[in-house]
Amino acid sequence: MLSSGRPAPGVALIDPVPLYREGLSALIRRTPGLRWLGSTGDLHAAVRLHERLRPDVLLIDSVLDPVGHLARLLVERDPTLLIIGLVRDAHSHANYVTSVLEAGVHGVVPRSAQPEQIVRVIAETCRSRGYVHPDLRPKERPTLTRREYEVLTLIADGLENQQVADELIVSVETVRTHVKGILRKLSARDRTHAVSLAYRSGLLIGTARTPGVE
Q1: Sign (positive/negative) of CA torsion 157, 103, 51, 30?
Q2: Per-residue pLDDT tens digits for 53-112
Q3: Domain spans, the chain
Q4: Does the predicted TM-score (pTM) go above 0.70?
Q5: Contact yes or no for 139/93 (Cβ under 8 A)
Q6: pLDDT tens by residue, 101-142
Q7: Cβ contacts of residue 76 below 8 Å, gap of 6+?
Q8: Is 146-201 a CATH 1.25.10.10 domain?
Q9: Backbone angles phi, psi at 38, to 5 degrees
Q10: Which of 24, 59, 143, 209 has the greatest number of C-beta atoms within 10 Å?
Q11: How many other CB atoms are there within 10 angstroms of residue 34's CB atom?
């Protein structure tokens, strides 16, 4: 799987679920070209685990490092360490992926990925020192008009069409027209789905920023 003549990379894991740790341990042990070093489910033991095992590759469950603080700390201590984020569904959006890559994570893969996909991500990260699983790669964001973005932001805040109209000082029919445009551009089923898609894609981050607006 990896270049011959080099020592097999040692792999360690930080994940709170014992069954997942056992499964990944078995996977790595039976994969030629990789060495299993150990794991912990305790976030506070992560630094000690790294110091004790000195892995080449460390996989971290995103629920234990949701903003990349642990990854940043470990990479600062050991610049040769390769960190792969195991991304939970709740974190599988552009904002999370961007933030952890900026923090020093080298690869990301859905935590629910098939075993062979996880092995592939480990191999590719070792080879190129960086890999983003296709399911987590940023998708092109739809472009909303400024007014559509304002309407979407207010919908995300829980306002109904009449309340949005009152806030923007427009007619409710105008708001409905903007909502239809938003649903069409986001390929959303309804208002709730539109908000969910907007957050997952990174289109909605907060009221202070207006990404993807023309």
Answers
A1: positive
A2: 999 999 999 999 998 999 999 999 999 999 999 999 888 877 788 889 889 999 999 999
A3: 10-136, 146-201
A4: no
A5: no
A6: 889 999 999 999 999 999 999 999 998 888 888 888 766 667
A7: 104
A8: no
A9: 155, 180
A10: 59
A11: 22
